[in-house]
Amino acid sequence: MNTQGIITRTSPFGVKETIDRLVIFLEKNGATIYSRIDQQNEVRHSGREILPMEFILFGNPATGGAIMAANPMAALDLPLKILAWKDEDQIVRIAFNDPVYIQNRYTLSSKLVTSLDLTPIIEKALTINQ
Questions:
Q1: Is 30 helix (H, G, I), strand (E, B) or coil?
Q2: What percentage of residues in the chain have a pLDDT greater than 70?
Q3: Number of Cβ within a 10 Å radius of residue 71
Q4: What span, in angstroms and rounded, lies between the C-alpha atoms of 49 and 26?
Q5: Is the pLDDT of residue 124 over 80?
Q6: Contact 61/69 with Cβ under 8 angstroms?
Q7: Is residue 82 within 8 Å of residue 9, measured between CB atoms?
Q8: Domain 6-125 in CATH: superfamily?
């Protein structure tokens, strides 16, 4: 599997609680949640089963707008996305785009992509004693 441009982390919480905590943290910090998709439930409608998996699509129009003004094709990776899933080992994992990958992909300045670094957000949102 090629995971170039993708950062993965583990979560101490279940998939739903991981996404719940991220949504709450993001909204408290000015992000707009555009969509939340329960992939497990959606797949179930097709008659198949997968382990728990949820996806959120979110952003901040001001910072995203500056990035898209610099390079309209960057909209292909905006709004931002976070995927959480439980793997076969029962470990909850989180995946999101690496900001350096987006910077290089669209030839953006490092100043512009600072807002795309989700690692600190995820760490704060998933702190156990929040």
A1: coil
A2: 98
A3: 15
A4: 29
A5: yes
A6: no
A7: no
A8: TT1751-like domain (3.30.310.70)
